[in-house]
Amino acid sequence: MHDLDTRLNAAIGLARAAGDLAMRYLPQPGAAQAELKGAQDWLTEADGAVEAFLAAQIADLFPQDGFQGEEGGELRTGERRWVVDPIDGTSNFARGGARWCVSLGLVEGTTPLLGVLVAPALGEIYAARRGGGATLNARPIRAAVTTDLRRATIEVGWSPRLPDLAFQNLANKVQAAGAMLRTGGSGAMGLADVASGRLDGYIEAHINLWDVAGVLPILAEAGAVVSPFLEGPGPVAGDLIYAFAPGLAEVKDRLMR
Are 228 and 241 in contact (CB under 8 A)? Predict the structure, then answer.
């Protein structure tokens, strides 16, 4: 079996178990039940429990691999590094919503090797490994065939790390181009929607490595056009991310100027 297949199968099983664990903490819909690390930067009890579970399991299965989590930082170094976001879309999770996921990615230098997103409240599992295609619930997925921004739906992610004007400028450009604007509170899920063709594009002016490590291989294998996030400051300080349907590869420049 291909080395990455072994790791991908393990990652799917671990992410599913982590999703089940997170579901035990999911509150009833209502006012947010979480701590604030900063404005709209949420932390729940589930974040710590899920990350600790994944860190321990990966250390047992792949002790030679590095590990980095959103909450605990880099626990181990290695040529290959697992990067985990225990709950992406915490603002949705904290209110008992369904649009959130457990994100697990394996990177080597600037190369995304494999990724898994499990959205247990939606019953969805995205998975991909380099050269092996991308799937949603074990069925192959491809980015949309859209070529006209006037027929496109674009999600713009908001980041508390930048002035609100950065988000407003991007949102204005999307609407001025004739595209439908959407925002959903989970960068990983928004990017996964580009991979599956549910969205035609996703843009966020600043996002962190753990938010995208799991979905970058999925986007690549689904044929989306993606910014070179791992080749710039993204892995250390975060960076701009964009992903588009391949038919929008040229016209996307109108939004990115």
Answer: no
- What's the pTM? 0.94
Measured CA to CA, the distance from residue 150 to residue 11 in angstroms comes to: 38
Q: Is the pLDDT of residue 105 over 70?
A: yes
DSSP β-ladder status, 66-69 and 124-129: unpaired
pLDDT in tens, 204-223: 999 999 999 999 999 999 99
Class of residue 113 by CB neighbours under 10 A (exposed 0-12, middle 13-18, buried 19+): buried
**Residue 141: both structure tokens together:** 């997925």
Same domain, 183 and 237: yes
The domain of 219 spans 149-256
CA distance 194 to 210: 18
Task: Tell me which residue has tokens 């959103």.
Answer: 70
CA–CA dist 257, 241 (Å, integer): 14
Q: What is the domain-level CATH number for residue 68?
A: 3.30.540.10
Asked if 161 and 245 sit in the same domain, the reply is yes
User: At which of 115, 140, 165 does a domain end?
Assistant: 140
- At 243, list the tokens: 């992903």
Q: Report the number of distinct structural domains present in the chain.
A: 2
Neighbours of 148 (CB within 10 A): 13
